[in-house]
Amino acid sequence: MSAVDGGARRRRTGRPAVHALDVAVLAWLVVPVLPLLVWGAASRWSAPAVLPQDWGWDGWRSAYDGGLVPALARSTVLGLAVAAVATPLGAMAGRALGWRELRHPAPVALVLLAPVVLPPFSVAMGLDVLLLRTGLPGPVAVVLLLVVLALPYTSYTMRAAYAGIDPELEEQARTLGATPRQARRRATLPAVRLGLLTAAGLAFLVGWSDYVVTLLVGGGRLVTAPVLVGATAAGSGNEAAVAALSISSVLPLVLALVAGAALQRRREERA
Amino acid sequence: MSALELRGLRHRYPSADVPTLDDVALEVASGSMLSVVGPSGSGKTTLLRVTAGLTTPDAGEVLLDGRPVAALPPEDRGLTVMFQQPHLFQHLSVLDNVAFGPRAGGRSRRAARDAARRYLELVHLTDLAARRPARLSGGQQQRVALARALATERSLLLLDEPFSSLDRELRHSMHDLLREVREALRPTVVMVTHDLDEASLADRVAVLVEGRVEQTGPVGDLYARPATLVVARLVGGFNEVAGTVEDGRHRSAWGAVPLSAACAVAGPATLLLRREQLRITGCGSGPGPDVSASPTPGPVVTSGRVVAASRLGARQVVHVQPDGDAGAATPVEVELPVGQQAQPGLRVLVSLVPGSEVWAVPGGRLPPDHSAGRPVRRSVLP
Prior knowledge:
Chain A is mainly alpha-helical. Chain A has helices at 3-30, 34-40, 58-65, 68-98, 105-117, 120-134, 138-163, 168-175, 180-191, 193-209, 212-218, 225-235, 239-270; strands spanning 42-44, 54-55. In chain A, strands 1-2 form a two-stranded antiparallel sheet.
């Protein structure tokens, strides 16, 4: 058999394995959501029945009446605000670390990692005490604290992105006549755009999915989707409503994954 | 007036023991091309970076068209750089890559693209204008990088080993293209390279070793009249004989060899004989009837026995171990004319090709592969 034939055969036999992996990943993501989907469409589902006894949209109605839409809107704004601050900060830190612009990078790396290394509850409580004394409005304090928690993700994502391109690229732009700002905007940032999108997505999810910081620092006045899910699950006993709220909370993650996959496909097609 | 003048440039990296640039002074005439050659780590790239404003020197001046530019950022110096890697902007098409400089210079998108098309035509890549850089071959990417540099229409072009990552054939094709571009646009060019073949594209060559300029001049001078033993070793292909110069003659175990009238060396000196300046004549004993027993073509410098033979393209290079007092010396390398060959074991006379310019450099013998304290990579032969 020729080498070409061998390669083609490997590709053919490799495809089912790839598909199996796709299915496994999809199952990993979807299986935990399946009971929620069923619960969301159930009016009554008592154990040990395998399927609901009554179907209906009572859960979604309860969730809507309980403030689902405003909570989703607050979560979206919170996620966007965290992404808007943490992404550029992470890009700056990632550039300094990825391009080795710092004389002593280790302390900086440690400071950036600290929120991940320390228990989030401790970080939130400690910083909350500090922020309370500054007199900052609650939502601003929540955003600032979540930015601190998002920075490890954005900075390390951007560190990897910058490490993947040569700093000479920006110098090349400068020697072609671009000012430092033009060089960053027109040469470097497009080269790390995938990293930027990933970092922004991660920062958004940190803001969107946060429960601890929003509850502690927001003092219960800032009702986001996770806070609403937590409160409904703890207090109402209305599992259908909890399911509807939970499905709504998962939606951004699904959208982010779909968008990411589409971007990756587009990139591969261009290449 | 010189297009580029470097005066007393000094630079040392914080972690380095020795300066990267040590009192470097160079001038490049407008429209001419200078090649900067030297072994790895000799400061070539730093020299280019300092000129471009990408690295700040510790001391010295950079003048472009007589104007000091030390305070100017790279984009305002009126020069452009082509690096070893093409560094094409992957998110832009080939056309927009070439249009990058004109756009940065303030031209409208349409005007910049019009200019870019002209330069793409110059590098024979008009039909690839719409492609993304990732879909180009290495040679095509370097052509685009050259077009992009030229499209800035800046008077000084700095090339940092731009063709070293290409294979031999592509490199030669880029050399031809560079000749075309020089003919068409007459830019002032400074090219860093470690390849003497490539350096010969330039009008003049500067040899940089350990941050110091050892010699400047036409490339032929490096072969015929190297200024120092370090330069000779960088060029490669010389036989070295330690001795003393008196009255225009180099005296050593090889006897008294008359030097070129232009060689103004006195005292301890090393005789440099290029291997193609020497011939061998068989003495009639030992194997190897291919070497004729005819009289020697020029003055005999030593006798000895062929101990090894190797090939250099179509020619054979033989290694002759000298007899007598000269026997302790390293073997003499002789490049034979095309068609002539000799076998190891043959006894021969080594003579000078008549009319050869014989050169010597000050100083005695240095350890082999030694260049001012640093090993020298033997470079490509002419």
